Amino acid sequence: MAYYCRLSFNSNGWFTPSGFQGKSTNRDNHECEFGFGFEEWLFNSRKFIDTKSEKCHFGYIDSLKDYNENTNIKKDLVLYTIRHVKKGTERFIVARLKKEEWDYINKQDYLNIAGANEPLIAEMKRELIATMPMLRSRIISSRFDQQVNCQDWNGLNSNSHRLFNIQILKTPFCPKMERVTDQTPFPDRHVLKLQRFKLFNSEQFNLL
Question: Among 14, 48, 55, 90, which residue has the fewest nearby CB atoms (within 10 Å)?
Fold first, then answer.
C-alpha cells in the first residue's frame, strides 16, 4: 500500500523549473496561476546542509501538506504528474519511493534547515525567475519568498507551506515517465481518476 502524490508537471526531469508548458489551465491551481510548482527541484542533486552539518537531499511535495507525522502511517510514495496538452491530459507515474527511502520534514525542522541554506535557496530562486517572463518576475519572486517563510499564496502564515517537507534518502534518484492508461494495472490505473494535489491512500481507491 502507498500514498499517491501529484507533482507539478516538469519537462526538465524535476531538476530545475521548466516554465508554463504542460502545466494546468485551471486558474484555481497554483501551477496555472504562477507557472510553477515547488516540486520542480525534487530530483535535483544539489546537496543541502541539515542541522548536523551533513549533506542531504531535500525537496517539496505539495500533497504532503495533508501528512501528519503523528497520526499518519508512513508508507511508500508513488509520485505521478499530469501533462496538459491540446487534446486533454496525459498522466505518468514519475517515481516510487519505499517508506525507508524518505523522511518527513516538519515545520520546526524546516526552519532550522532553511537558516543553514540561505545561499542555496537564493540559487533556487534565481533558477525559477530565469524561466519566467520578465513582467512576472516580481510576482514570482514574492511567491517564492512566501513559501520560504511558511506562508500560503495569500500571504497568510501556514503550518503546511514551506520550501522543503521531504528528505530523500535514496540517491542518486532519477525520475521515469511511465504512461498511465486504461491498460495499466491497478492500483496505478487509478491515477486516471486523480486530479488534486492531495495525499491519496491506495487503500481507499475503491471508495473514490
Answer: 55
